[in-house]
What does this fold into?
Amino acid sequence: MTTDAYLADCRARLAFDLLSNTWNAVLLWVLRDGPRRPGELREHIGGVSPKVLTETLRRLEFNGLVERHAFAEAPPRVEYELTALGRTLLGPIDAFGAWAFEHGAEVMAAQDRNSG
It folds into this structure.
């Protein structure tokens, strides 16, 4: 492994890729308080389709950030929860959120100035 920050296998780039998808961070943040079923996740997250929710949960599970628990019940029940690794991203997500709260109006003003 090289330390060149611009190569595809750079660890910093891996981290940025994980947080670049809006739904990844949103789902991780919603799961911070404990396991949730897919229907509960949709209730807490506005604007996410069932398909996108499923794709995002699978991506997070693939990356070791979320665990899926299937219960042998009738009807079947599935819950998702953060792994220990997933919990380590809550601090950076909180920091990004704080930055957005503090500077979001400035970014939107710049977008308005540059859109016309």
About this structure: The radius of gyration is 17 Å.
